[in-house]
Amino acid sequence: MELENLNFFLIRGLGREIRHWGKFSKLLEKECSFLYCLELPGFGKKADKISPRTVHGCVLELRKEYLKVKASYGENNESVLCSISLGGMIALEWLRAFPDDFKCGVIMNTSAGNISSLLKRIRVEGLLNLAKAIKEEDKRERERNTFRLVSNRTVDEKIVDEWSHYAEEIAPDKKNFFRQLQVAFSFKVSSSIQVPILFLASKRDRMVDSKCSEDLASYLNASIEFHLDAGHDLTLDDPKWVIKKMRDFDL
Known about the structure:
Layout: E1 6-11, H1 22-31, E2 34-38, H2 55-73, E3 78-84, H3 86-97, E4 104-108, H4 118-121, H5 124-135, H6 139-150, H7 157-169, H8 174-186, E5 197-202, H9 210-220, E6 223-227, H10 234-237, H11 239-248
């Protein structure tokens, strides 16, 4: 893909806000024509909203914002939907329901209930960490544990500080977290998606088995690339690799 001629719209994953894109969004913004991070209802700057209970409901909420932004800033170029984890499930439903919105989708470390088993969609380590995170009251310790789960790199204390600051500044309602969890567990992908998709998966993802992405790619006859040592948050562990794979993607 010629990134410089494309608009990118980004969707994060479970319990995260747009600031968690960190370095990746800044790097990608330098490469593409226009970049916009879509905030999921119930988190970040939309913390006062109620999180939808279905993936399609999430799509409808985000699409309202997308259409306004596209009309204001991005009518001149085609758009790409880039997403991770739960965001990937929302992206898959969006590409099915509104195939003319995007030229293609880039989807990282995601899964679907009709394709993969529960213990592949969330590994035992991820399940235990999730339970621990829900109980943990110390926000910094919770974010440090999250870093250890989603990254295979040495813990970056500066990033942990940033994440804990986000949690202190805008504390999401736990009810919205559980709504998102329900959305993720109930998601089933349609086989009728016609928009080109590039799946990216981490072989050493300790939260979601990379086989989930592999099986989705096979099910949808889509392209897939594997990172050999990054964790669940590919854009945290190797943002330049993600951008390179997008650039190399031959539509």
